[in-house]
Amino acid sequence: MTPVIAVLGAKGLGLLFLWLASASAAQWLSDRKGYGERPGLATGLLLSAVGVIIWLLWPAKAASKWKLQGPIPRRGGGGGGETVAQARAHGVGDDET
Questions:
Q1: What is the end-to-end Cα distance of the chain in Å, rounded?
Q2: Structure confidence by residue, pLDDT tens digits, 56-79
């Protein structure tokens, strides 16, 4: 009897990569919106591509990277905009708990 090694197949491998990519994207979105990485990772792992859509529609916190720097960050970090730490030092988003 020969051991079966390659049972997954191309379709299964593609779905696995889609699942992992959507979990990574949901984690990145939730971190940019100010909720941390863990809620996004859990949403992406449990709901797959639907988790990304949820985090795209979820509102961002006031002192988040999404609100201060925009949805897509500038490359190189030298954008001239205010950083999250500077905004918190000025009191932006203090009313949220």
A1: 62
A2: 999 999 888 888 888 887 776 555
Ordered by start, the domain boundaries in the chain are 9-59, 61-97
Nearest alpha-carbon partner for 34 in 71, 63, 73? 63
For residue 62, what are the contacts with CB-CB under 8 A and spacing of at least 6? Answer: 34, 92, 93, 95, 96
pTM above 0.70, yes or no: yes
What b-and-e string marks burial along 54-93, b requiring 16 or more CB atoms within 10 Å of the CB? bbeebebeebbbbbbbeeeeeeeeeeeeeebeebeeeebb
